[in-house]
Write a sequence for this structure.
């Protein structure tokens, strides 16, 4: 499924999400958005074998417009998927900065 670029869509207030993908080297944001949220990505290891990382976490940013009548209206939302290993150097973590890297799928079982 990852090799075939499968994605899924999220909606909030009937608005589709906009997916952003940061550059893996410098964490810079690209100038555009993507349709759908990918389920993961693949990389080749040093032996040339393909390894699959699953996007197992997402950051959601809700964009709100404040009206003149002092109401708030959801006008969009952004999804940033990322892969994070369950164990960090200090045990389980939910902070991507403390993670040991992406969560690769293990097909050896």
């Amino acid at each position: 499924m990852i090799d075939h670029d499968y994605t899924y869509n999220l909606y909030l207030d009937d608005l589709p999400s906009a997916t952003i993908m940061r550059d893996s080297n410098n964490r810079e944001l690209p100038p555009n958005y993507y349709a759908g949220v990918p389920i993961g990505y693949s990389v080749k290891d040093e032996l040339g074998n393909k390894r699959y990382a699953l996007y197992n976490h997402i950051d959601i940013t809700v964009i709100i417009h404040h009206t003149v009548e002092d109401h708030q209206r959801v006008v969009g939302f952004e999804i940033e998927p990322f892969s994070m290993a369950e164990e960090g150097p200090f045990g389980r973590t939910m902070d991507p900065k403390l993670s040991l890297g992406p969560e690769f799928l293990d097909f050896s079982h």
Notes: The two ends are 19 Å apart (CA to CA).
